[in-house]
Amino acid sequence: MGEVFFYHLTRRPLEAALPELLERSLGRGWKVLVRGTDAARMDWLDQKLWLGPEDRFLPHGQAGGAHDAMQPVLLTTAGDNANAAACLMAVDGAEVSAEEVGALDRVCVLFDGNDDSALARARAQWKALTDAGCAAQYWSEESGRWEMKAQKGG
To answer: Structural domain tally of the chain?
Structure first.
């Protein structure tokens, strides 16, 4: 059974924190599915990933292409796992089910700590997933680096 990590973004925006987490996941040999809630926002995130430093290129694509299954990182708003990812990164309040946590190696929920509605959504996801028996960790970058601040289950 997998686990869910909640990443509380307080110092950097999503487009700065996500590449680091994607690199770590790819380094573990995992394919990653990045699930958002808005197609335009996923287009924007796709552009940000393409504009990263050349020496830290992150191979990725957007769902709906001919080669979705082969993408190491696939950006989507859909609920399926088109690239057979081992890791799901949910952004912008995208839904994650306890079944997905159980089926994947890791689920990451990234949320903006400066947005009250994002905080409320993340708290609701934490409660729903831990109440369903999922092991969860809460990570904060408040000190300037990721530190685990809480853990439940597992």
So the answer is: 1
